[in-house]
Amino acid sequence: MYRKTSPFPARPIKEYLLQEKHPRSIDTRNTYNGFMENYVIMQKRVIQPGKKPKNLYYNGLIPLPKAKYDQLQELKQFVAVNLQRYYQELPYIGTGQEDSDDERVNKDDEQ
Description:
Blueprint: E1 15-19, E2 22-29, E3 37-40, E4 64-65, H1 66-75, H2 84-88, E5 92-93, H3 107-110
Parallel strand pairs: 4-5
Antiparallel strand pairs: 1-2, 2-3
């Protein structure tokens, strides 16, 4: 990501200028009344928007352990009421319970 060596001499520099609007470059000045020289210190990164991963290792939601599901049910009280349904419908794997209403594992995800 960064260059291996400095693109500018580090010792005789009198002034460094880093700007938030130009995060990949640095401006330097060799003398107090000299002109500013610009150097690129980071390689440009190419970001491809909308590109999806090639291989998905799972489809749908991954079932949570029952203990984690119970913790989320306690914490959902701090979430807005209209968003609490998401946490109620999370799939989880029960711990030895035979009641099918308590286990919310999606049958489609098990295949």
